[in-house]
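Reviewers asked in the last cycle whether our approach scales beyond single polypeptides. To address this, we selected a multi-component target totalling 1169 residues and predicted its structure end to end. The input consisted of the following lines:
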Amino acid sequence: MSELPLSAMNEAALQAAPATKARGYWATVGRRIVRDKVSMACALVLIMIFLSAILAPWLGLEDPYKGSMIRRLRHIGTAGYPFGTDELGRDMLARLIYGGRLSLLIGILPVILAFVFGTSLGLVAGYVGGKLNTAIMRTVDVFYAFPSVLLAIAISGALGAGILNSIVALTIVFVPQITRVAESVTTGVRNMDFVEAARASGAGPFTIMRVHILGNVLGAIFVYATSLISVSMILAAGLSFLGLGTKPPEPEWGLMLNTLRTAIYVNPWVAALPGAMIFAVSICFNLLSDGLRSAMDIRN
Amino acid sequence: MLIDKNKTRAAMIGLLALTTVAAWPRAVSADTVLRIGMTAADIPRTLGQPDQGFEGNRFTGLTMYDALTMWDLSSADKPSVVIPGLATEWKVDDADKKKWVFKLRPGVTFHDGSPFNADAVVWNVEKVLKQDAPQFDASQVGVTASRMPTLASAKKIDDMTVELTTKEPDSFLPINLTNLFMASPTKWQAFFDKAEGADAKAKSQAAWAAFAKDASGTGPWKMAGFTPRERLELAKNDKYWNTARVPKVDKMVLLPMPEANARTAALLSGQVDWVEAPAPDALPEIKQRGFVLYSNEEPHVWPWQFSRVEGSPWNDIRVRKAANLCVDREGLRDGLLAGLMVPASGTFEPGHPWRGNPTFQIKYDKPAAQKLMQEAGFGPSKKLTVKVQTSASGSGQMLPLPMNEYLQQALAECYFDVQLDVIEWNTLFTNWRRGAKDPSANGSNATNVTYAAMDPFFALVRFLQSGMAPPVSNNWGFINNPKFDELVTKARQTFDASARDAALAELHAASVDDAAFLYVAHDVAPRAMSPKVKGFVQPKSWFVDFSPVSMQ
Amino acid sequence: MLAYIARRIVYVIPIVISVALVCFLLVHITPGDPLVAVLPADASQELAAQLRAAYGFDRPLPVQFGLWLLRALHGDLGNSIATGRPVLAEVMRAVGNTVTLAIAAAIIGFTMGVLLGLIAGYFRETWIDKLATSFAIAGVSVPHYWLGMLLVIIFSVQLNWLPAVGAGPGGSSAWAWDWAHLQYLVLPAITTSVIPMGIVTRTVRALTGDILSQDFVEALRAKGLRETGVFRHVVKNAAPTALAVMGLQLGYMLGGSILIETVFSWPGSGFLLNSAIFQRDLPLLQGTILVLALFFVFLNLLVDIAQAAIDPRIKRG
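The resulting structure, written as structure tokens, was:
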């Protein structure tokens, strides 16, 4: 497998946000993205998947944990089981919808955590500069030296299987990437006139970072982070697929894909369903991230 | 990219026809090759003492090597028992029960032509037991010494007689010795002399590494080719000492294929002729395409091993019995496992010399189980919570998660609330040695590690004897039952083989009557073969004899 | 230029040492007994202690790290616990198979990517562009292990055209460049190629579009330059960035192939890593991670230097 699409986006994300923005910029971005049909379709699909995952217990679904040896591996379209049943006779529809809970959690939470940590680190490194910058960025470089798939698998392999360990592993993978982006945009902004002006008027470093810099770099970092969600979804499910993530019997798409592999000779299309969910979420986040980027790129 | 298969096939058949015609005289004498897909992820070690458990012994132990004693693998119906191997007879010293005398088989040679004799036996004992011997190899010690825990030393009496000494009187020694394979000292010495290394230890390691690539034993198969992690080629040993067991095929190729689907696909597409443990869900397809399925009860148990430490819910015998009565093992067999298990009613089933006559009948009787649970103070509104540690995969574990989920559902009917603690296989296995009190047990009160029941120590003693509690051995739940201890001692010190078996049967019956485990299943070692494979007999064993197999 | 290269190389040394430290520490926080492969569950305590000492696991971690690093510098990554074979030889054999797969995937992915990217860039905002872009987005969004499974379902299970797993009828050792062996490469290579295909398509499309929309292209066209000349111009300007992206993608394919190799049982470095993780074979695990990470570090270095050689503006920092 090759690496997931990180590096190529890096540069694009950096270009996306102009350093200073007039008031009304975000309103324009909002108007532009609402007019983008592809982005809106993706947002709709994602909202449906999210809502169904959250509301799963109230949707009148079968128990996703309750199996039956008699009704194992029913085909798609079986009466009562529109998406068939899995290798233990559990309702696939219920498991796919419930599976969204864990899959989305372990796919998205690491990016959010990495966004918080990475932005803070990058902001400090970029604004303070000097030795602190060197210390932070050289540490980041070490983790950057591993292909992210290898790093994620090595960390989860070391920590052992488990939801928490997967989240930790993926967060460690993404923090250096976001830190790099954050440091780079911060360095770009820090010597601009308005920051100088704020400094001259006696604002402290924390105020400057929070008020003047954060507001101007957050957009670029945010766009970059949204592009990571798709990668994170694929990786998180990949860890479970290898047996390094979620543990059975929890419904989770990657793990379902793994356990259903034994059934590809009997019921191949049911076995392929969880992957389709991962694909749908991943492609929607990618398209949405693209849409957001071009909406923010006013030059166009 | 994708070439039309039919065209390709037509072209290949044409090509094949041409080459066959051209090479006709040679084709007649072409080697017959048997290709086998193993479940192991890597080729088991080839240097004499294989890793990968009994699958290792099956493929790289018993094929290339012999031991002093061996298993009878000739019958599919009778239990597999110990028979003479490189030793023709043995007996314990009447005066000192720690000393045994083994008479060696005359006229046996290693694949390199050097003779098998008492020196070779002593050398092979010392490769794992004598730390200052040049051939001592730490990497072989673990798998060997633990399978013959009482063996202490070996001494040559004459060229064809060896004296073995145990640490304590132990009637199980001849059974244990099936695991000590005889590698050629002459061949090893040649590698040692050629090896480069700073010191004797480094040279010894290098010599073993070289030996692993070009091994020499006395077995019916010789090493012919070896690519680590990918393939091992064995060639028949024409000069095997037991002429009845000279292999019928010329070559056997062993391929590691850890994925059940991959093995199945390889069989169906003709890449291999024989696969171990095909994917259960693919069995109908395998049969439908004309492949042949073999299986037989194996000395293997799939249990829940109960914790008996203070406060464990399993300390109440009614609860232990109720769990044993609450599981519909036939339903498990016919549903989830597609027929590929034997319901367990103990460690050994009726007909086995060590079965005995337990009074507690392990079967499916839900009303009786519910009644026992009610007597113990539980009911629909007051469930008993139990926590079981298991893994998602692992050698011999069959289908651990689905099977545990099946038990979870079944036991719920008898007022059990089963919590599964799924951990990584190696962690589970490590905890098995550390015991129920160790933090790594996560507070669970049963563990689900399957075990081989080939010899009495592994089948019974290590679980039931109080002295075997962690960290000594696998009495994971700290069973402490004076009756078990007394019966273990009796069996170990009974040197007449049939009296010893009777004592073991008594111990086994006592353990069933005490519902010492939740006995669930015996594996049946399913294997699927091409219809071209003939003459195969699957014994009630972990091992098989490849010699009578032929290819048509 | 030489100074830049020298600086870049010196800068790699601390990275390499830190990477080695991360590899070592990662592996040693692993729960479970490192000797589980050679020490059965029923081994006595003395036996366990004896073996732990024989393998050096009784020493303090810094000592173990120092010894390991020292030997690693001499090209000795120790011996696998499970097999007793030298780790370096094991890893290198596996890496060879990964290289075969990566090159096959690169040929497919890069060719497709460049073609699609050029077409999309030339026909920007037309349906052709949309089609090519969707293809690229799908490529970078698809969980490749799932794609691998789908391909197996279609081409191996349903159609029975191609083998599902493995590296040739006799394993990779008997590899030959004939159909009997190549058919094993088809599915894993296609699966591996989708991400580089997607990324290269997007890069080339953006580059082509940018170059074509620049004023001087119009000027060239106005001066009567033919389309082939314009095309040559596009290629010349897009090549450095595109090649750098491809170089990095090749690095990723060499370094992180574990999921696809697991799906196809392809006996490469990722497959080896997977078995090392599940066998808890510490020397093999840390050796494999180290070799793969170093591969990636050096490919990065090469790409940097090559880029600097082509485009002197990059020589900042």
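Residues 1-20 of chain A have pLDDT under 50 and may be disordered. We regard this as preliminary and will revisit it once experimental data from Aim 1 are available.
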